[in-house]
Amino acid sequence: MEREVLFRIRRFDGEHAYWQDFQFKARKGMTVLEGLYHIKESIDGSLSFRASCRMGVCGSCAVKVNGRPRLACETQIFDIGDTLEIEPLDNMSVLRDLVVDMDGFFRKHEAVKPYLIRGGDNYGNPKELMQTPKELHAYYDFSLCIKCGACYSVCPASATRSDYLGPAAMTAAYRFCADSRDEGKDERLRLVSGSEGVWRCHFNAECSEVCPKNIEPAKAVQKMKLMSAIRIIKSIFR
Question: Per CATH, which fold does 103-236 belong to?
Answer without folding.
Answer: Fumarate Reductase Iron-sulfur Protein; Chain B, domain 2 (1.10.1060)
